[in-house]
Write a structure and sequence with these properties.
elongated, 20% strand, 430 residues, alpha/beta, seven-stranded mixed beta sheet, eight-stranded mixed beta sheet, 2 domains, Rossmann fold, Nucleotidyltransferase, domain 5
Length: 430
């Protein structure tokens, strides 16, 4: 590659660097197949802010209109451009920095006709602009492909999306591309669950070379790890149940930078029933309590499908790392085995055995109440744990799996603040 680049003139090198085929990331290039294999009809590009989704959507429309390799075998004659509002279609999708007019070469650039709300290419291809505020405007026109931008923000998302599907009926294989940052809205959940949809993901960091450094220093430093940051920067779908014991807002309010002086520290373990690949995770949580009775979650070291010897070593290491007072272990699943594997890892570690006599929801409710009272704090960001907390309701987790991180958290906080035992007099700085 170095030898080839050395043979290029400055002009040719500039053309190469400007070519989308050369500069596009894998997540910005049309996928080969959908989630379930086979050709896709919908390509969902769900990424963080500034990750390059507008450029990817505009390049796809350009490739379809011109019939470029990797996009279409021949030029596509009728295209729909749909944004949240008419102004968004014009200012972002068409006239924006990464919009359609900016990325075409002079000899292939389409003519933007604002009065007719359409783009006309020299080869005869046409793209019509529509606003998601007016679903009925899609009744009648027909297309071979469509670009839907910021679908998760549309006011009439379901109606507009459904109306478009009736119009995607030209050519041998009508297709649509959706570019959006995630929000837990029904239409986006439906697309994510559809095995016939191709999905591309990327975080804001993936496009760092094209973004201001000050943006990362200011925005990323402030929001990294928070619910909003995971959604807007990492492009993750952050959801919560209406009947969950915890909410995202509750957890964000509970977050602190550090724990301070703690009078008692425990490491809680919720062992899995087996070590097979399909087994539940092993919840391992470290937490401590200060002199005022406030509890601080210090670390989540949970493991997936780990053998007993492994999770025991991790739990013991966490115990020593935080200079804990005891290791709390649930013994419903093989009490003697649990105690034995911990003793094998380190016989000096004191183990407090706990046994579940009530359901998970009933055990978790008093702990959630402590959060509501402002008596529990997270000393950092624990994404996987917080996802479990916000998707746990009366019937368990939404995905049907065991809430092992939550269980370990409940045992830890119960041992610290709900057991009625006095705190140890020793004071440590965490």
């Amino acid at each position: 590659m170095d030898e080839l680049l050395e043979t290029l003139s400055a002009h040719d090198l500039a053309l190469l660097l400007d070519a989308w085929e050369f500069s596009a990331r894998d997540d910005q290039w049309p996928p080969v197949s959908a989630q379930a294999g086979g050709p896709w009809s919908t390509w969902l590009i769900m990424v963080g802010r500034g990750a390059g989704k507008t450029r990817a959507g505009a390049e796809w429309v350009r490739g379809m209109a011109l019939g470029l390799p990797g996009f279409s075998h021949e030029p596509v004659g009728r295209i729909a451009l749909i944004g949240e509002t008419a102004a968004d279609v014009r200012d972002v999708m068409i006239e924006g920095v990464s919009g359609l007019l900016a990325l075409h070469h002079r000899d292939e650039r389409p003519l933007w006709e604002p009065s007719r709300k359409r783009l006309a290419w020299p080869n005869g291809a046409l793209a019509q602009a529509f606003s998601a505020e007016d679903p009925e405007s899609l009744r009648g026109p027909q297309f071979a492909c469509a670009w839907l931008d910021e679908l998760a923000k549309w006011r009439h998302a379901e109606e507009t999306f459904d109306m478009l599907q009736f119009g995607l009926r030209l050519g041998t294989h009508p297709r649509q591309v959706v570019t959006t940052t995630p929000r837990p809205v029904p239409i986006l959940k439906r697309l994510l669950a559809d095995p016939k949809v191709a999905i591309s993901r990327a975080a804001t960091q993936a496009n760092a070379q094209n973004l201001a450094q000050e943006f990362f220093e200011r925005i990323v430093a402030r929001y990294e790890g928070t619910r909003l940051g995971r959604q807007e920067l990492l492009g993750e779908m952050i959801d919560e149940r209406a009947d969950a014991l915890w909410t995202r807002a509750m957890l964000d309010e509970a977050r602190v930078n550090e724990a301070g002086s703690l009078r008692k520290i425990v490491v809680a373990v919720d062992p899995p029933a087996s070590s097979s690949k399909r087994a539940d995770a092993c919840g391992i949580i470290a937490a401590g309590m200060d002199a005022q009775g406030h509890v601080f979650v210090l670390e989540d070291a949970s493991l997936s499908a780990a053998r007993p010897a492994k999770w025991a070593r991790v739990a013991v290491a966490l115990y020593h790392k935080h200079e804990a007072d005891s290791l709390v272990a649930e013994v419903n699943q093989g009490g003697e085995m649990v105690e034995a594997v911990i003793a094998e890892a380190d016989p000096s570690v004191p183990v407090k055995k706990v046994r579940a006599t009530r359901g998970k929801y009933l055990r978790a409710a008093p702990v959630a109440q402590l959060y509501e009272q402002g008596r529990v704090h997270h000393a950092g960001h624990f994404a996987a744990l917080e996802d479990e907390l916000c998707s746990f309701g009366p019937d368990g987790l939404e995905n049907g799996r065991s809430p092992d991180r939550l269980d370990a958290l409940v045992w830890a906080i119960t041992a610290l603040a709900l057991s009625g035992e006095p705190a140890q007099p020793s004071v440590r700085r965490i």
